[in-house]
Design brief:
There is one protein chain. By secondary structure, the chain is α/β, with parallel strands linked by helices. Helices cover 25% and strands 27% of the residues. It has a single domain, classed as P-loop containing nucleotide triphosphate hydrolases (Rossmann fold, 3-Layer(aba) Sandwich). It has a seven-stranded mixed sheet, sandwiched between helices. The protein is globular. The structure holds adenosine-5'-triphosphate. Adenosine-5'-triphosphate (ATP) binds next to helix 1.
């Protein structure tokens, strides 16, 4: 496996699970103490009338231990949302393996945009409306999707009654539209839910370096690659050093 430079990781939390895996998109069935894992993940799309293949993610590898609050940072367009969608099961990687403990929950930047129907299965089926599928095909695809994220038993539940009893939270720039007080409130609420349950793990996409104060660890990406991951303080120092290197010494 192609692991990027690692600033800190307790040795007992790093079982050698990736290298023995086939290079497929199946879940790796990672060790119990690793909640989220990506191994050599690549993602590309075909652009310009199906002629050019554009890479978005390049050999991304990382491991996030259970019960920790991690952040995903990097410049605009480096691939953070794409990586999060792959972890959520919303996109398939072009190659590489992914493991995320279940049930998992993905929250978009604007949560109001992600729930449109009253029940869980109807909401999932809504996204299939643009394809010409039979009712049986829709039912079968909805079942597969709900099984994939560990929510099959909740298919008839009202979306309003879903609890936050998931094991993994994947959160994409939740605080973008919030004022400073509410930003802090949300981040503290996530931190608090992790502190009260050792089983919950969260990965939070952000641009705000100051939010790293609440994190256990972080992943820093550039140009589709995981450049560094490890404890939050080290990643913050790393990014700050990069930023200051770009500032001119004198005008
Ligand atoms: N299916 C696709 N079609 C076209 N472009 C795509 C596709 N998937 C990803 N991209 C491009 O890949 C790049 C990475 O996008 P992504 O949204 O993952 O980045 P990001 O780091 O989350 O950016 P931001 O911080 O601005 O939200 C962007 O340039 C995006 O336009």
């Amino acid at each position: 496996m192609n692991l990027p430079s690692l600033t800190y990781f307790p040795q007992k939390l790093v079982p050698s699970v990736c290298s023995a895996l086939p290079n497929s998109t199946r879940s790796s069935g990672s060790a119990d103490n690793i909640a989220i894992e990506g191994c050599n993940l690549n993602f590309s799309f075909t652009a310009t009338r199906q002629v050019k293949v554009v890479p978005v993610l390049r050999n991304c590898s990382f491991r996030i231990p259970c019960g920790q609050f991690w952040m995903l940072l990097g410049p605009n367009g480096c691939g953070k949302s794409t990586l999060l969608k792959i972890l959520a099961g919303l996109l398939n990687p072009t190659s590489g393996t992914v493991h995320v403990n279940k049930p998992k929950s993905f929250v978009f930047q604007n949560p109001d945009h992600q729930v449109v129907m009253p029940t869980v299965d109807a909401d999932v089926a809504f996204g299939l409306g643009k394809f010409s599928l039979t009712d049986d095909e829709v039912r079968s695809r909805v079942s597969r999707a709900l099984h994939a994220v560990g929510l099959f038993d909740y298919k008839k539940r009202s979306v309003q009654t879903l609890s936050e009893a998931c094991k993994v939270l994947l959160l994409d720039e939740l605080t973008t539209f919030l004022d400073e007080t509410d930003q802090l409130g949300v981040i503290k609420a996530v931190r608090n839910s992790l502190d009260t349950s050792a089983e919950v793990t969260a990965l939070w996409v952000t641009h705000r370096l100051e939010e790293l104060e609440y994190a256990d660890g972080a992943i820093y990406m550039e140009d589709g690659k995981v450049v560094k991951y490890g404890d939050a303080a080290s990643i913050r120092s790393f990014i700050e050093a990069k930023q200051s290197a770009y500032l001119p010494n004198e005008y």
